[in-house]
Hints:
alpha/beta, Rossmann fold, 16 helices, globular, single chain, six-stranded mixed beta sheet
Amino acid sequence: MIARHLTKALKDAARDFPVVTVTGPRQSGKTTLVQATFPRHRYASLEDPDSRAFATDDPRGYLNQFRGNVILDEVQRVPDLFSYIQGIVDRADRPGQFILSGSQNFLLLHRVSQSLAGRCAVLRLLPFSRAELVGRPIRDVAKLRSIRRPAASKGPVGSEDLFKALFAGGYPRIHDKGLEPQRWLANYYQTYLERDVRELLNVGDLEGFGRFVRLCAGRRGQWLNASALASDAGVSHTTVRRWLSILEASFVVYLLRPHHRNFNKRLVKSPKLYFLDTGLLCYLLRIQGAADLVSHAARGAIFETWVVSEALKNVYNRGVEPDLYFWRDSAGHEIDLLIDRGATQIPIEVKSGQTVVSDFFANLDYWRTLAGRPDGVASLVYGGDSSYRRHGASVVSWFDWA
Length: 402
């Protein structure tokens, strides 16, 4: 089993809260993680029809069968349970009593906020990060100053490995079973449409929604223009907003918000649209193999998507809220990724090329000058295999990122 970086944050939360909720996309490894982390907890899945019927008909009796700590999987399938869980933890406030997991973030967190506010920690598990896949300990991406690779990972990594990583994505089953990515992702995507979108979210026009998702894939890494997207999809502006909320809540896309420190400049105020898994993005773009990425027109945007998604995984795996933004002014100066730590902001430039040229540092220099910190911390993440210092910035290989 590949070790998950969220384990520490999960254990810490279970020592502080009576209820811990782990949410994330389907097949991201939530059940495996919670069972491995809490082997002494009883386990019950509300996907099982008999368990779900019991919990629906007699929620009090269902919960009373668990005398000790328990893991309840896909708990959003029986919404009434949350109120009864609230009553139990109010009577016996015992840390780690309930570990809840579920894939329907839009349903699960609504119930948690209604019934378990102040009693529940919420953690998010995304598919494997690159660091998890190569067995590297988690580290804060804002502190990547100088890279020291372990002996086993020294030497050239190669662009072929990068393209394979982008094409495969991070869903655990692909890596655990050695499956062909696009075949598995095709089935995964169809299940998402048929089950989550049709059954649970009552989206009647599956064909229109599927077309909308592929249109979003074509706009990866771009500013969100809801009106243009509505026009291309043939739906209303309101429908676009609703469908985007569905994609974001089900961990298919992520909207990277703009940073509003303006330096007396006019700024872009629309978010940028990213997918959370580059394998799924490649499937939606109908890319047939890793080798196709070498000269594909979307290569740069896919790499940028990967860098952003890896940064988000890093944040979630440390159990903290996202502090990720982008910055762009009306003159076209842009910072691809900006980490905001309150008193300090770290600008990050992203380039898919394997050769670093001086022009890559232009936007970093511009932003640092505006911020009054011309020698401030900055990073360039690129598609090459060496990490070093140059031009007052950390040049970070894709292999060493996050």
